[in-house]
Structure formats: C-alpha cells, structure tokens
Amino acid sequence: MEWVILNVAVVALAVGGAVGWAIGRWAGGRPVFWLVVAGLLAAAAMLLMAQQGSAYDGIGYVIGAVVLVAPAALGAALGGWIGARQRRG
C-alpha cells in the first residue's frame, strides 16, 4: 500500500479517535455507540452505492468506505471506550 494512502487512513483513525474520546469523556458511552453505528452504516451505504455505480465511481466509493469511513469508525470506538473509562473513574 502506498504511504500516502496509509497516511490518510491513519489520520482518519486519529480524527475518529479524538472525536470519540471527546464524546466518550463528556457525554458517556451511549452517544459514542450511536456515533460508531452511524459510521458503520455510512460505510455500508457507500459499499451499496459502489455496487450501483459505474466502474470508477464504484472504486471511489469502496476506497472511501475502506480508507476513510471504516478507520474513523474504529478510531471513534476505541477513543470513545477510552474516554468513557476515564469518565467513570
């Protein structure tokens, strides 16, 4: 994998983690859960749109779902878990 693409995925993971941590720290675990569910639904919707799109549009949707949305949702889950644990004590 190219380093530029990997850097984009790492930045998406870090931004998702920071947002998840902030929400988990100040609002608790339940809003983080819904944030992660919304992210996963967005990734699933992008994959479904990829099936309906033409060749290059479909590739773009898959790359967007796999490189941007899925790492952000994973980062939000991990950051939210850490933030919620810090909130509890």
Q: Could you explain how this protein is built, in words?
A:
- It is a single chain.
- The chain is an all-alpha fold and about 90 residues long.
- The chain has one domain.
- Helices cover about 95% and strands about 0% of the residues.
- The protein is built from three helices and no strands.
- It has helices at about 5-25, 30-50, 55-89.
- Helix 2 packs antiparallel against helix 3 (about 55-89).
- The mean pLDDT is about 90.
Element layout with pairings:
Layout (H helix, E strand, L loop, with lengths): L2 H25 L1 H24 L2 H34 L1
Helix pairs in contact: 1-2, 1-3, 2-3
Kindly summarize this structure in a few lines:
The longest helix has 34 residues, at 55-88.
